[in-house]
């Protein structure tokens, strides 16, 4: 579990995060949503130690990241898996080599053990058979799955995903959502997803926080978000024609 308490962050005197208090639970897909510029990316960077808050706590199972030494932070990061918006694969490495990379850097396994573990993760994301291909030879959706395999290869306790469905078609996005949900539940990982994808919000949002201008304005689940009494949240969730239709049908049923 990751718990955030009274987190504040400013840049050049401008407050970007204000009194953030949140709990991201084990074995759940925890979503952070908000308009561009709302502060959600800054929040994630504070959660993983890429930025330091002005004040507050970021507790990983009771361990405060903010108070950790550099060495302790480095040790903690070995428990964290991350996927980035653009997959961020190494073009010169094969799919298998990309997944093995964290093992090459941080594990004491021999080559045979590293390869076996990487292949297990590729099978987990349904990419066995693609291990010898290079990123340029596979689709964007497959690249995202390789990135997920790489993120879980060290058996992380915490998984951060930045816009995992960015640039993907709806069908492929659904595959990624289901994959992240299965991994979260099967491995009992604390998964935090920063997303603009409202299909993900509705489909896999077991715990959702909505950030507006640097503070948490609403929290709930995918079942509660469609009926939330918050106009700013409604403007975000029902921005597409599809969800406007959903909202209209809900009102007709009342």
What's this model, at a glance?
With 254 residues, the chain is an alpha/beta fold. It has 10 helices and 10 strands.
Would you kindly provide a written description of the structure presented here, covering whatever features stand out?
- The protein has 254 residues and is of the alpha/beta class.
- Helices cover 41% and strands 24% of the residues.
- It has ten helices and ten strands.
- A six-stranded mixed sheet has the order 6-7-8-3-9-10, sandwiched between helices.
- Strand 1 and strand 2 form a beta hairpin.
- It is globular, with a radius of gyration of 19 Å.
Question: Could you give the topology of this structure?
Answer:
Elements: E1 2-11, E2 14-24, E3 28-33, H1 40-47, E4 55-60, E5 63-64, H2 70-77, E6 80-83, H3 95-106, H4 111-124, H5 140-152, E7 158-162, H6 170-187, E8 190-194, H7 198-204, E9 207-212, E10 215-220, H8 222-225, H9 231-237, H10 241-253
Helix pairs in contact: 3-4, 3-5, 4-5, 5-6, 6-7
